Amino acid sequence: MERINSKQNQTIKEIKKLHTHKGRQKSGEYLIESWHLVQEAINYLNLNQVVTILATEDQYLAHGDDLSGENIIVISDEIAAELSDTSTTQGIFAVCKIEEQSFNVQKDSGAWLLLDNVQDPGNIGTMVRTADAAGFAGVIFGDGTSSEYNGKVLRAMQGSQFHLPVIRMNLKKAMEIFKAQHVKIYGTELNPDAINYQDVQPMDNFALIMGNEGNGMNKDLLKMTNDNLYIPIKGNAESLNVAIAAAVIMFRIKS
Amino acid sequence: MERINSKQNQTIKEIKKLHTHKGRQKSGEYLIESWHLVQEAINYLNLNQVVTILATEDQYLAHGDDLSGENIIVISDEIAAELSDTSTTQGIFAVCKIEEQSFNVQKDSGAWLLLDNVQDPGNIGTMVRTADAAGFAGVIFGDGTSSEYNGKVLRAMQGSQFHLPVIRMNLKKAMEIFKAQHVKIYGTELNPDAINYQDVQPMDNFALIMGNEGNGMNKDLLKMTNDNLYIPIKGNAESLNVAIAAAVIMFRIKS
């Protein structure tokens, strides 16, 4: 067990870089934070995918017994605050390896959520967590959708990225694969000419696309779908938050 | 039309205080931000409830025509940045009067969402917006639930607070009123012994209670309900975000 007390330590400096896209790309690693996520990583990832656990003295005392076999660095509270991107950190982190997940869709491979240019990290992470809870097979992050290794996305996913594949892929390409397998693809739009989501019979195998918060789905992708769904708005709200709309549809149409 | 260019101006200093609970209580006013919310306030509030509009030169040029009859102050970009609680402000604000909304439930008064000690401003605002879209009659903020005038709550509500009553009230007291009117009250809990929300027939008049993010609903309130609902989790997620759970249930059981 190593101990680091200086913020100037080179290892800590390198780990801090994992908050940026560039830093993650260079090292092929990313950083997760909180005991819940560290636990999920240990439970769901292969041993060699969890590179290092960083814990304050308090956290090491609390969880050390569950961390046998792990490469552990005990850090000062000051370093924990430095590594965290929250204002109140628990003081426990893990550096994990980025491993590309392959997209291998078969005809009966379940329900997939596709994110088209979704911006807000909280929305994105919440949608992955909700897809997990709704029994979806996986989530595909299309072009323009914020990084799955962004701190806020990781926090909102609450570990669901360890339960189901989260894949980054051009959505046009993904849709062509679904089409070749005769998997039905549903787009979503704020348009009463689309199909009321309540009129869709619950099913097991399909793809559902959610679009950008302000602009909705890409027009070219909308044309490639089998059908497009909308949620009727009863009150005076103009629209629903994208993660809310995704949840309402996912829980309704996934059998 | 007044013009203020100094951050030291007393009016600006007073308006800045509206970001705090104490400041709002003292003045009986609150601050909203963005053209969308200002528009909603103008459309839905009485004239005397919108006290002052603050707009940068750009925003005044863009929207001045829609603001005739309003008390307008043109402010510098620097003041706009100072008044905003976002990192990228549009530069338009309104100071509105706080007016207590009375809770007057009749037997057939629709569906009500009750928030029991919900903490996260984004979750709270999103639930009000979702209740609006699902055709709910109103939302009651119970003890411990973050302020309806908090900047993040206001932003997430997207103006829905102008479409339906948002009332602050002790939930035990509110439940007694619903009970006296024979309105059915549903609690929510993460407990498979509760009723699957899908087994509830859609209806018009009821109260639905959502609990705290970490601890769920208050145990005493859970005992006062007619029934308690849960959402079966199919994947490996431990739970749903509270705003997501609220949306799934609201859109399912409100006819």
UniProtKB/TrEMBL annotation, chains A, B:
Residues covered by the RNA 2-O ribose methyltransferase substrate binding domain: 31-102
Keyword Mitochondrion annotated: no
UniProt keyword annotation of Kinase present: no
GO biological process, any: methylation
Gene Ontology, cellular component aspect: cytoplasm
Transmembrane segments: none
Keywords, in A-Z order: Methyltransferase, Transferase
GO molecular function: RNA binding; RNA methyltransferase activity
InterPro entries on file: Alpha/beta_knot_MTases (IPR029028), MRM3-like_sub_bind (IPR053888), Ribosomal_eL30-like_sf (IPR029064), rRNA_Methyltransferase (IPR051259), SpoU_MeTrfase (IPR001537), SpoU_subst-bd (IPR013123), tRNA_m1G_MTases_N (IPR029026)
Record family assignment: Belongs to the class IV-like SAM-binding methyltransferase superfamily. RNA methyltransferase TrmH family.
Protein's name according to its UniProt entry: RNA methyltransferase
Species the sequence originates in: Fructilactobacillus fructivorans
